[in-house]
Amino acid sequence: QVQLVESGGGLVQAGGSLRLSCAASGRTFSIYNMAWFRQAPEKEREFVAAVRLNGGRTYYADSVKGRFTISRDNAKNTVYLQMNSLKPEDTAVYYCAADLAYALADRPNEYDFWGQGTQVTVSS
């Protein structure tokens, strides 16, 4: 088992930046692929970005590609999401997720462990 705790959310103006962190505890962090999802009110949970267990490959949703960067520091058991050029449509609760599968995935039901989420609000 692994526990995930997100932090770094907040309120920013459109065009601004935020850096989210997800701290993991429990089993060895480096064996998990990690991902960020987001969920706006009354909408499905949406894939944002994923990173391979060793940080060697990343995968992004088209809606955030070029603006967001996922990274991880296995020595600190932490995954990050750097969000630049934020837009109002980025407003959502952002969730960190961990996956024991071999390949990167973009479906929520492929992930084994989830954090509680952190709110990101982007004003126009």
Oligomeric grouping of the chains: single chain
Q: What's the number of extended β-strand segments?
A: 11
SSE order, as H and E? EEEEEEEEEEE
Main pleated-sheet profile: 7 strands, mixed
Q: How large is the radius of gyration?
A: 13 Å
Distance N terminus to C terminus? 40 Å
What does this structure look like?
The chain has 124 residues and is mainly beta. The chain has no helices and eleven strands. The protein has strands at residues 2-7, 10-13, 18-26, 33-39, 46-51, 58-60, 68-73, 78-83, 92-99, 113-114, 118-123. Strands 2, 4, 5, 6, 9, 10 and 11 form a seven-stranded mixed sheet that branches. Strand 5 and strand 6 form a beta hairpin.
List strands and helices in order, with pairings.
Blueprint (H helix, E strand, L loop, with lengths): L1 E6 L2 E4 L4 E9 L6 E7 L6 E6 L6 E3 L7 E6 L4 E6 L8 E8 L13 E2 L3 E6 L1
Parallel strand pairs: 2-11
Antiparallel strand pairs: 1-3, 3-8, 4-5, 4-9, 5-6, 7-8, 9-10, 9-11
